[in-house]
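Lab meeting, action items carried over

1. Structure of the two-component assembly. Owner: GW. Status: complete.
Input record:
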Amino acid sequence: MNLPSQADPKPLPPVRCLVIQLARLGDTIQSLMALRAAKQLYPSLEIHFLARERFAVAAKRVPWIQKVISFPADQILGPILLGDKNAPESLGDLARWIAPLVKDPWDVVVNWTFSEASSYLTALIPSRVKLGYTRRRDSSFSGADGWSHFIQAIVQGKVNQNIHLTDILTTQLLTALQIHFGEPTGDGNSTVTSKTFFSLALNESELETVIQGESKSWISIQLGAGQATKAWDAENWAKLIQHILKRNPEHSIYLLGGKEDEEKANLILREVDGDANVVSLVGKTGYDLWTSVVARSQWLFAADTAAIHLASVLGVRVFNISVGPVRYFETGPYGNGHYVIAPAHICEACNRESLHLNEHTCRTDISAEAAYATWAYAAKEWAHRRMVSLETHFSELGWSDKLNSIRIFRSRIRNSSDGGGVQYEPQLKKPLSMEEWTGMVMGHMARAWYCGWLPPIGKEITREAISPQLIQKLREISESTQVLSKICLQASQTAKALNQRGSALKSEKVMGLRDRTEIQELGKTLTELEGLMERVTNTHPPLKGFSQMSKVLMHHLQGTQLSDLGKETAESYKQLNEGIQLFKQWIQSTLDIAKPVAVKSATISTFEKEIST
Amino acid sequence: MATFTDRLMGEVIENPEGQERDVELLLNRLLHCLVDEVKQHTATQGSTSHSFENSAKGEILGGDIK
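Predicted assembly:
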């Protein structure tokens, strides 16, 4: 009989955790992936998952979720939208739905929706610990933790950063659990992804009627996307399928999608002339069948859809065609060995988030030939072991010209000693853009702010990737980072003075004229410095993150006394200045990598050798 | 003991931190925001759900800092 040793940690009491995810299916699956990691490390977590009725099915198929709570949007919001009920009448319906959620206090409420509506819902629910967006006692907005500030200022503020959302959610929750509930007791080394991530209630005979030819190597293609501007054209999919079937007869194709994708599927079936190796399941799959088909596939091809997250969680390799206004480094496929093909440049319509399809010139950048060549390379990795370059591979196919308008990335999970998380490694020798460089720096900064430790600076930059244009831009903003740093230092000192003045006051309501004038002057100085920071960052868009972060931090100052606010303001500017110092170090490190290195020529070496002999 | 819904109109609910909240106000704002989200998404994307890309940022970064 094995008795537990005295060193064995005591099992933690159950931690009741409510996760609010009112976003779409892709966000739901990413949340489930983050929760899987937390559940493995904290087996005592009792997870209750709140989702919209339409997307709750994914959580319902996860066996370690204690309870799934559906938000009946149609039932509560439908009558208002149809004019059958007014808002006061529907308020009672909403209150009755919320009543069980607020009955007993929770240990943790995690709001991963990051929306205004969800912040009010989170505020209503009593809990010991809250993460994500909520409301203060006076109903003003509040990001409950540092990562929420980062999401608000940087991720939703459209500043480039390279930490995947799944990693942000995981780190946010694990950090809070460690602070409030102690060290993890579970195994952190087991894999999160698995073919059996979901327990599906699917009739085998139903599955067999659609899964034909078990011995075939299947590729599933999800045709649609979250929005039209992010979808790849049906003509392109058809051409890609023709290239695959012509050169790889062992493969067959499943077309997947909702009813809205039926027109696309029909066009593809016409283009491939009714080839028996192409089977359309578009509009015919519920969640279980959809998941089963993806799980049985060797590859999933898709644009920016929930399917890439589904395949990631199931451990199926993803070939992600990333067109339109997509930030693949935040929401791309998660895991090792996925491929992302994206336009070489962000088009003007993507920058202003136009919803007009024809304005997105980036949509024509990825050709069917480029997509085929990239996938063929990825699918044969076991043979060439990536010893052959993608450029050579394209050249052998006679499609080198197709490389000009694209970028290709391969996903990799970093070692924990390098910071962990997924990264997308460029596979083509192309210069690093300013946007990519900024993304690396902002990601690094977030780790410094919220994880408390740092991997080495510039480790993921190679000398070849640094172009003269990048060097020029870095030199241009270098001086502005010095100015920003001075602004933060001065603001921090001013805020400290405000703290000291406030602490010395007997009353904040009744004070001498001199005290009042001095406090007003200090406040005025802070306002001017804030305005100056705004002007500097407006001149250099890569620095925009600092002024946005400053606004969010200033909004979240806590305390009612002048002295508290002064102290918190000083701390906020100190945090910003730490970030600016990192930014400066990145500039210097990149410029150092780009410096010419003296190389001994062969002639000199031979000459030296002759002399020494 | 009055239930949550009984206490709804004009009542307050107390949470463990001892803070009192005006339930009616929060519920009203929640309902309005949910309806607005549906209207906004139906108008732009034909979808009734929310995504990461839309947020409360306008409230903070748009200058309404109070």
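2. GW to write a short summary for the group page. Key points so far: Residues 468-504 of chain A form the longest helix (37 residues). Chain A touches chain B through 59 residues (CB under 8 Å).
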